[in-house]
Amino acid sequence: MANTSLLPRRQSLVPFICFCVMIFTLPSSQGGNVLITTSLGEGSHYFVGKTIGKYLVKHGHNVTMLVSKAYAHRAENPDDAELNFIVFHQSAEQIESVKERHLSYSKNALEPSGAAYLYKLIQAHRKGAADDCDELLGQNPDVMRRLEEGNFDVVVYDMIWLCSLLLAMKLNVPAVLSSPMAAPTMLSMYAGNPVNLASTPDVMNGYNNKMTFFQRVNNVLANRVLYSVLEYHHVPYNSIRERHQIRPDLSGSISNLVGTYTDLFLVNLDFAVEFPLPLNPNIITMGGITARPASPLPNDLEAFMQSSGDGGVILFTLGSYVTHIKPEFLEPFAEVFQRYPQQKILWQLAGEPKFKLPPNVKTMPWLPQNDILGHPKTRLFIFHGGNNGFYETVYHGVPAIIIPLTGDAIDQGVRLKHHGFGIVLDKTNVTVDILRVAIDTILNNDSYSEAAKLLSSRLRSRSMHPGDRAAFWINHVIKHGGSYMRSPLIELNFIQRNLLDVIAFFLAVISVILVISCYCMKCTFRCCKRMCFTTKEKHD
Q: Which whole-number Å values give the CA distances from 309 to 6, 94, 345, 499, in the listed order?
């Protein structure tokens, strides 16, 4: 017979055992407080920051997103309930300015790419972004008090708004830079990463890593122009820093401080598709951070996908920044989609179109892009070339047509063409015939789909998801700091960094040796001549 007198004692141990199991199975990392301010609350830069935040929460950290009042609705999104939000106040005039600046991407989307386009875009944002910063630091006492009482261990910021770096300095906490763009040359300038412009194309150049002589010349010039434009963009933050007395003990301009104050650089690239280049230990790749296994679609969207039959679905979007564009640019798409009744088309389009849509087209103001790309019915992705969309289509192995519109989109087009899983079209020459040829080529040629699947397999073959990698390294900075990983190159000036002083020294040494050699040869020649003349006189 069982000893029933022991049952109550055993039962009383059950809660204690469960408590012990819970304690010992908690994540080993102690949760930190992380402030993320990767943009004012809109666009791909915000979505990358939010994704980093969700992975940090998964790893046991407390995450707070700082957003502008212009995008206060972000704090009410039930999908982001695990994140905390601080909304900083802005005047009605400044809120309108924020939204107008966001629309400037749409207004300038069809402008020719290049240095002039970049300058025009930065000019549209420069003063407004600085005013946002001034308003945050000087006219939001309650928000600043909450930030100071937040006991943050680290600030994750974005180059798009360097006020975030000033905020990290004001709170006296480490800073981690998040870059949604690949842009290796741009980051290298600030992180002190050695980069060879002979084989590493600069951002927005449209070159691959095998450049001709004149392309290399242009690459070097473009790199200097880009640096100058960014320096111009950063100038107002130096005045703001001085006005608000932020860390006067630290020397250097705000551009210098990007390298000397930042502990870690998170960059949205992966060498499964990027051109090879060396990286410092404090530059961590997180290519494809927004890409993940597809989640089930809403019922109405799933029904639409299934209704496509064997023809499948073509997904078309111009991204989160280009939400309004002139109808003349979009009309050829509506016309060409009409010629593919066997396919269904999902089109992300804000507002009502000013032209007639064919019956096989479904428009929505927002689409779960990653989940649609991961659906077995998706056959082709036509998009503007954003880096997040690029990595999502690679992750899911879907061939693509890129029409580079803004920023670094032209660079994604180069990689798409280089790896052979899609076609690049010129935004200044998008016609029905050109679209038809491009779509037919991809749908009727299996090589594009096979190349996409090969890249997908390569990208997925990694030890951890880039979100987990980003969270791991941010946690590392919280625990151990990251200054020990900084490159010593950031302490050197242009002459020292490029060894121009050493080259000058060698040239000087060689020049001295040549001068001495010439002098010795001249003396030897004179001696020989004198000896010959003396001998001749004696002979005579």
A: 65, 49, 12, 63
